[in-house]
């Protein structure tokens, strides 16, 4: 009886594999552990062990909680200034990556994007860009767009306008030297922002970019979880949020591992990947 059961299981598995092959499905087994890292996971550089690499406002986990409703309200209130998605009548999506660069996750993400000829938008932290100038230059050289994510990643809701402007402009100076242009796109750390700060940032000649699909990769999720968070919520015009670096306790290996599956799946479904300025028809530099 036991042999018959085993034989039945093997036969069923064989039929499923044959069906998947015929229908061009790719079966992938992803470890479902928060500590999972790809076998090629490199060690962190000394620059990432210093305080200079830390996020001024703390980790995403400690600061998240800004309601999606407020993002919706701001995009409705400032339709030509604050964006969370693109047009819904075209099968385009934009990948965006926050908090980079670093020497661990960002190069792996760039490798995947290059392999699949996909251009993305990276919202960079000024002091991290200063630590890893070569990574920023690679982004630009490979056709990606660079946006401003402040100098040190503070929670701007806890700052006065003068301090906030200094954070943005200090990052702009560094990014302009490395990217070769002054970014025209801004994303607020943790997504936290209000109407008064939107108006203040407008004076700096920036467009503000939020998102409508959150991978939640900052929770150190597995590849399976990140993939599901993206694919179950994506639609025409989506701006997808992932991270290309994080605080020291964040493990983004799952996000990196999910990226190829996300790209391949959405391409099969007829989506085309574009940068944020292409999606929104906005300039990427001042």
TrEMBL record:
Q: Name one GO cellular component term.
A: membrane
What would you give as a GO molecular function for this chain, any one? metal ion binding
Query: What residue ranges are annotated as transmembrane?
Result: none
What's a BP term from Gene Ontology annotated to this protein? carbohydrate metabolic process
Keyword annotations for this protein, in alphabetical order, are: Hydrolase, Metal-binding
> Keyword Acyltransferase on this protein?
no
| Start and end residues of each NodB homology domain | 91-274
Answer whether the UniProt record assigns the keyword Hydrolase to this protein.
yes
Protein name according to UniProt: Peptidoglycan/xylan/chitin deacetylase (PgdA/CDA1 family)
- InterPro entries per the record? Glyco_hydro/deAcase_b/a-brl, NODB_dom, Polysacc_deacetylase_ArnD
- Give the organism the record lists: Thermosediminibacter litoriperuensis
